[in-house]
Amino acid sequence: MSDSTLDVQATGLDEAALLARIQAPEGEGREIPDAATREIIGRAPVDGVAALDDAIARAKAAQPAWEALGHDERSALLLKAADAIDANAEGLARLLSREQGKPLGGPNARFELGACGAWLRTAATTPLEPEVIVDDGQVHAELHYRAVGVVGAIGPWNWPLMIAIWQIAPSLRMGNTVVVKPSEFTPLSVLALLSVMNDVLPPDVLIGISGDREVGARLASHPDIDKVMFTGSTATGRRIIEASAGNLARLTLELGGNDAGIVLPGTDPQAIAQDLFWGAFINTGQTCAALKRLYVHDSIYDEVVDALAGVAEQMPMGNGLDEGNVLGPLQNRQQFDIVSRLVDDARAHGGRVVTGGAPASELGELFYPITLVADVADGMAIVDEEQFGPALPIIRYSDVEDAIASANRLDVGLGASVWGDQDAARAVAARIQAGTVWINSHGGVHPMIPFGGVKGSGYGLEFGVEGLKSVAVPQVVSGPGRR
Ligand code: NAD
């Protein structure tokens, strides 16, 4: 690392300087639009399979020395990488805001950069000691966690930086090297993040490959990939499982969800409205573990719908670079079309649109307002399919047994939430099929609390000690007992 790099990091690179580092030469690559204005931000390199093969070969060659550094040195370097991210956070947040669409303020772009630092530091400093399994005088057996080798990290477009860090941080910490394949919708901000981290990391331990879906497929099936960390749709997750039959790569799969929330009778609608809102609409609803179908007891149904509408009407939506906005556009046309279709279908089948319900074209091409759809039922597309956007179906129930059955009836189980009296809510939570059940909140994650799905939402855990183990291979060292 040169002295000039240090100077630049102290002041932080702005968006243009970050772009200059990573974008494809003039006339090459693919143009990436600003999600809000649709103006071209820059050109992402489009790497092919040959570049990917080269990246994996370099990562494989770099891995033994990286592992041999030991935990303390790797941790120190990862803490420096976290400092480098912090120093460049504003430039990265602006690039992220433009490419992904999420505003700078609110629980959005700056918040995402803050989470990158927090997860990286936690992964760098969380101890993972060998476990003594048997020590009976005859046998002394220990369970150690060794590096897996080369990790392939494949991510989505909704929280592209935070999810990349979720995959990268524990992998590097455990002595693996990593090849990252960002979503083709949000490559620039991820490549910029890697570039900043690579100012302080040794060569080839962290390599970004900006390619299309075929490059993702090749990464998952490559014979020299030992572990795949994947976050994305259930459909792609299935393909990655198939690919792993060839290379026997270990998998962590964070897939789609359709999280239910259940509001119990006796709950004060005003007291929960704000948290319900952000549970459903953080990142304008484009969040894996967002509240995607809300079941409300008949006795307070109208009050909860009104309270949510009241919160929704106060939340400014618009260009993410305008301070004050807390909601942005859909990231891409495909997702915009899914949301529009599901709302239109709900209306056609008798759903009552309480607020929103038609594109907010005055804000730009991909803006869709916060939409609450009441008087809907299980079986309607807006309830059964993942909307991944700013539309929430609100379903009335009168027997909590029915609400639990509804929550469990789909083939996904990422998160869920129960709202109301703590004890009653915990009793309901125990019966819900989901990787996480939140009580009186929805979607909050913590770098030490394991996170992962069940059923079609995938398998494997991220974060905390469990997350470190998931990017390691267990090795038993067993010998004669020590007296
Ligand atoms: P996607 O599955 O379309 O794409 C994800 C990534 O996989 C992209 O980088 C893509 O290029 C790559 N890819 C495509 N085909 C591939 C293949 N055959 N092999 C390997 N890689 C391939 O998902 P998306 O649309 O970017 O993301 C939205 C989905 O992700 C939603 O369903 C959402 O619920 C889910 N998600 C889940 C979590 C979680 O933690 N569980 C978090 C965020 C998003």
Briefly characterize the structure:
This protein is an alpha/beta fold and 483 residues long. It has helices at residues 3-11, 15-22, 49-68, 71-87, 89-100, 109-125, 160-173, 187-198, 213-221, 234-247, 269-281, 301-313, 333-348, 381-384, 400-408, 422-429, 464-470; strands at 30-33, 40-44, 131-135, 139-147, 150-154, 177-181, 206-208, 227-231, 250-254, 259-263, 291-297, 352-355, 371-376, 391-397, 412-413, 415-419, 436-439, 454-455, 472-480. It has 17 helices and 19 strands.
Using the 3D structure, state the CATH architecture of the largest domain: 3-Layer(aba) Sandwich
The biggest beta sheet is recorded as: 7 strands, mixed
Reported by name, the CATH topology of the largest domain is Aldehyde Dehydrogenase, Chain A, domain 1
Report how far apart the termini are: 49 Å
Shape: globular
Rg is 23 Å
- Structural class call reads alpha/beta
> Please, what is the average pLDDT?
96
Identify the bound ligands.
nicotinamide-adenine-dinucleotide
Strand content: 15-25%
The largest sheet has its strands arranged as 12-13-14-11-10-16-17
Query: How many helix segments?
Result: 17
Query: Strand tally, please?
Result: 19
Percent helix, as a range, is 40-55%
Class of the largest domain, according to the CATH hierarchy?
Alpha Beta
Low-pLDDT stretches are 1-9
Q: What is the CATH superfamily classification of the largest domain?
A: Aldehyde Dehydrogenase, Chain A, domain 1
Number of domains as seen in the coordinates: 2
InterPro entries: Ald_DH/histidinol_DH (IPR016161), Ald_DH_C (IPR016163), Ald_DH_CS_CYS (IPR016160), Ald_DH_CS_GLU (IPR029510), Ald_DH_N (IPR016162), Aldehyde_DH_dom (IPR015590), LUC3-like (IPR044086)
Organism: Microbacterium rhizosphaerae
Protein name: Aldehyde dehydrogenase family protein
Active site: 254
